[in-house]
Amino acid sequence: MPVRAQEDATPATPPETAPAPMAAAVQTERIEIGLSTDSIAITSDFSGAELTIFGAVDNVDPMIQRQGRYDIFVILEGPTNDLVTRRKGRVLGIWMNVDSQAYLDVPESFLIASTRPSQDIASSETLERLSLGVKNIRLRPYVQGTETVDDIATFTEELRRLKAQKNLYEEFPSGVHFISQSLFRATLQLPANVPLGRHTARAYLFRQGTLVAQTQSTLNIRKAGVEFQIYTAAQTQSLLYGMAAVALAFVIGWLGRVLFRKD
After folding, report:
1. Which of 4, 104, 191, 245 could disulfide-link to 167, CB 3.0 to 4.6 Å?
2. Alpha-carbon distance 198 to 79, whole Å?
3. CB atoms within 10 A of CB 244
4. Alpha helices of 38-108 — where are they, by DSSP H?
5. 249 pLDDT above the threshold of 80
């Protein structure tokens, strides 16, 4: 009896394949900054200063860098304070305050530098959202309910204008320069009337118009010199300061009497 060969219907086991390699993690850019000094001393003869901020961009894409598509904003924002803007008018021939508008948490100073003009870097919506630019600074009016939209807008524009007139709100469109493929330098001019206190330095990195990284640091601006020591003594050692002032007045009076007495 012929024997038929039986075909095995069990499918052959496919050869083991090596696991697919994991996709390399995408390295995003990062930005870091360092100030030339972390403290500035203000004396009686202070006439302003130039502040240099150095920074570095990590994980730079060489192709985008060659195309010049990386842009940076550097901001130095002063301490905030509540303030009131007033409008003068002529009443019966006399100039006097006729209206006012209060604002909350207003930056006392705002200096901003960038690699190019801001409108060439990002959209107006992005600039406004991040407060990049003097006209985009968020100013919160204190609304009592009697103000009109036009009045608030007028006061807000005047507040920006007065700050800019005192060089407290200022833009430096070409104040940031790349000094190598990943290193950059920003230069800001501090005015003579720069406010005292803790300032915040912030840096924003844009790639082809899109924000990809940001960082911040701090700068302390304080008084120094003999005037500040006298002021500090008056605040912390008021009794001794008063006694010293009285003694100094007696000495000056006695010297004046000796020098100018008539024989």
Report:
1. 191
2. 6
3. 14
4. 62-66
5. yes
- Across the range 7-12, mean pLDDT stands at 46
CA dist 75 and 171 (Å) reads 9
Which of 158, 190, 147 lies closest to 85 in space, CA to CA?
A: 158
Dihedral sign, CA of 158, 109, 77, 231? negative
What region, left, alpha or beta, does residue 222 occupy, with left being phi > 0 and alpha being psi -120 to 50 degrees? beta
Tokens at 45, concatenated: 């003869």
pLDDT over 80 at 188, yes or no: yes
Structure tokens at 75: 């901001």
Read off the amino acid at residue 243.
M
Query: 3-state DSSP call for residue 239?
Result: helix
118 secondary structure, DSSP code: G
Half-sphere exposure of 83 (CA within 13 A, CB side): 16
Check if the beta carbon of residue 114 is closer than 8 Å to that of residue 71: yes
Q: How many helices (H) and strands (E) does the chain have?
A: 5, 13
The continuous run of DSSP H or E covering 153 comes out as: helix 149-165
The answer to whether the beta carbons of residues 169 and 163 sit under 8 Å apart is yes
